[in-house]
Fold each of these.
Amino acid sequence: MRALGRWLVAALLLLIGRRRARPARPERPRYEAGGRDELLVLTLLAAVPAACVAFVVVYFTDASTQWLGLALGGAFALAAAAAGIAGKRLVSQKRHVEPRPELEHPEEQEEVLRELHEPGEGLTRRRLLLTAAGGAVAALLGALAIPALSLGPGAGGRLTRSPWRRGRRLVDEQGRPIAAATIEVGNFLTAFPEGADKEDFASPLVVVRIRPDELRLPAHRSNWAPDGILAFSKICTHAGCAVALFRYPLYRPRSPKPALVCPCHYSTFDVARGGHRIFGPADRALPQLPLAIDGEGNLVAAGDFSGRVGPSWWGVRKS
Amino acid sequence: MRRALALAALALAVAQPAAADSVSRGRALFVEGCSSCHGFDARGVAGQGPSLVGAGAAAADFYLSTGRMPLDAPGRQPLRDDPAYDRADIDALVAYVASLGPGPAIPDVDPARGDLAEGQRSFTANCAGCHQVVGRGGVVTGGFSPSLHEATARQIGEAVRVGPYLMPPFDEHRIDRHTLDSIARYLRYARHPDDRGGWGLFEIGPVPEGMVAWLLGGVLVLVVVRLLGERNE
């Protein structure tokens, strides 16, 4: 960062210095566009669609967001550079007025006008440049529209599928099963489904243990928390952050009650009441996963979540 | 008021001839300074303070050595302060609380035995949600999570095992002895983190970093505009 800052200052000084050093630069007749400048602008304009294609490829190959940003940012930077150079070098910025006598014959006048507007042989310079610019703009618009696919039907399956089935074991980050006896009252830990993709939306769980006499679960969930061990989706129902905060009071009568808190906007969920929201912008409960303890004493799922996992959007406001 | 009482108790304790047994000296100090909330027999006073039977040496040493106890008023969140007792009195009180019943002992934490990278991983996974990634502290609904920059390795270990106030406790299954050493080592490092790139920007994450990027980008755009544009004569 410091190095970046130094480079920036150096570049600034250089630019300013360059301008100061040659104040009386001989004015170049800019309207006499050289072939080199044109070629440069054309190359830049042609690189814009290339960068846009790279953006689309990165989007579909699920590469990192850094590459996405680099591709799209690069496309914009190339287009800006092309526009800047074209404005400076190709288009005359001066107004020239050349007086000429009025033509004597109206027919002649018309012919001159016709010749002026008639396109020349093949592709003129102007048309080539305009076509390239149009292509660049179209490619940019296309690249910007592509991410809208993420909202389409293809995304729906990923958002609703859940790896949790009755009997599926809970494992820790290293893939080891979790023995119920190792979880003390007040503990909290992160768990995943055995043999499923950890990156899946519905995979991460937050497991907590409270005293069984503290439980205030709805009647139909009365057997969801063996020994006071509860499991919830780790994805906040407000904006999808990881619910990473657990408060467990050392002395109950004088302290706030046990709750899971999302670090992004402080949505607070009462674990004793099955993830019921007690504070914050989330508007539905944290989905609870029914738990059981298998013959070896390990935690297993006893079914699927109580509601839809993940942030709320249309159609998933309440559940 | 409570602190004044505690100091008075301390003065009394110092004035008395040194007790033969540190537990009985601790008990005397306890009755003077702590019993109004925790009860004369340390079994708690309903609605005032919890029973200390089974609290263990770790809890007593943590609360007293960080100045969190004695508390000004029951129900308030205990926050870090100058300790009200000197080391000898804390040791006596700790011995007394530990004698009440089995509880977590003071953990032996040595940052030198720990591994920095493992400490950072474990701290990020278990602690950073509340305490912020370099231990600067933050809030949880209903309380503050304190900065950990002043905490000694021993106090860090005690807090992990005890789970003071709203903090959940972490036992050997969740954070083992070696990981605890590593966390202490990471926290020692996190007081003055080595900010790759130069600017730490308060280590509070991507928001200030993004703002700085926008500001630098804005300046850059202004420079480009200045270079491209021409003055109207």
Note: Chain A is about 35% helix and 10% strand.
Amino acid sequence: MTRLKDIAKACKSKNAGPFHITLDIMFDDPTLFERVRASGVITPALIAGLYGVAPDAVLFTEYPPALAWKATFPRRIPSGAVGDTDVYGAQQHAPLLDIDIPI
Amino acid sequence: MAANHATQEKTVRMMSASGILGYGFPESSLEAALARKPHMIGVDGGSSDPGPHYLGSGKTLNSRMAMKRDLSLLLRGAIRNGIPMMVGTCGGAGGEPHLQACADIIREVAREHGLNFKMALIHAEQGKDFLLEQLEAGKVRALGNAPALRPEDIEGAERIVGMMGPEPYRAALAAGAQVILGGRGTDPAPWVALAMHHGLPAAPAWYAGKMLECACNAAIPKKHDCLLVTVGEDFIEAEPLNPELRCTPMSVAVQALHENASPVIRYEPGGIVDSSDCQIEAVTDRVVRVSGMAWKPAPYSIKLEGARRVGFSAMTMAATRDPGLMGQIDSFLEFVRGSTATKVSALGIAPADYQLVLRVYGRDGVMGSWEPSRDAQPVELALIAEVVAKTQDVANAALSLARVTLLHSDFPGRMCREGNMAFPFSPSDIERGAIYEFMLQHVVEIDDPLCMFPIEYEDVQGAE
């Protein structure tokens, strides 16, 4: 079993404005990126399932120039509002790390 | 160097000092930039990233000392070289107090170093009457799934800013201002304005601005340092000024992902930057050229940012190392909530006048309901109890009761009968003061890109 954290260069989260969070999955090896891409595992539906949001709420972009995928969706709670736990949105990436990649 | 400008393709060189004014940069990188005879030097001053406190309170994100250090170096470098110095989204949030804090520093540096120059202050804070008129006229549009704006939202705001495009900066350049301080703007605005002021097209100007707004975020290894971008008719070239740093096609592509909803489509006032067809290639091992960007004009609109005061907050931190308590933390905290509510109401405080928020670190304190491993067995748990209330006194009073209830409530199988919680501090309760929340995901549709951003000119005379 290959998990994303063992092969990706970066899996990260960050605010995209106060109301959205954006996740980036990045590789540094074009061959590996293409193999993962060909596996078809990284999809909007996968991200939606990991974070419990509706698939149509996920803006999903495959971005080959950076060997990357980007997914953007609404935050649970706007940045810094009552009950927020992560003002910068910088620690919401952990569910990506264990994604199982069948390669 | 160039004997015949008419036969040469026009290029403009622009520098960005660091990701945000006050983050610092090596002086040697600024000197390296100035040796390249740039057409301007600048820095972005802000972001909504640190949360709503700064826009709401009027306080600056970075310290005055740190902003002054950066501004002093940039100002002296610009005046010495006779080039413009521009700062976007001054003071973190780009409201009026943030802009004035930066203007005050500039005047002080001018006095200390005997500098004379024309300064422009571009105001971005929006009057409520203006916004109410725009709302009434149907010119305020909600973005995405945001609810429609109501007049009471505007009336209840603490502070609202508009995110200016490059046009006010262009107007200030055309008026001969050498130092331009802007309130809230879209991050690329100062650089876009400079490139377009020199006659370059919108597409490369916008792409350059996006590269520059976070400076050496587009380079490796990551560092707060200065970036030089050369803009031509249909390309940009990015190059870090510190010889230890490099721009690679990958590092430049990665910057396109930064804090964006999409790496290829970026909505800006007056149009869309489309980088779907960009070619990114290495010029040397540390210089990268990007071409093929497109600018697609769209009806002009200005994004609004607003903060409203939610109330006043007090918090305390406590932790448990008791396995019996950790095994029943949810039911324990429910008991604490109920018991606290009874005690708080005995003070005559209505339930609607306060809110108790409990965060459990070691379980789901970071991700809340997104946490996939909520049932892992921790060795210890930390709690942050927070009360948000209409006044600080009520927040303090309710938090005090929540704290004592956390410490002394019973639970089944309790072994440690002297107190359930470890408090690391005395005093344990911390007043957080007024707290705010972001409240706007809306744009105003306007015809004149300047009309929301008055420009004030000032002849700064530091040399007597």
Note: Residues 1-7 of chain B have pLDDT under 50 and may be disordered.
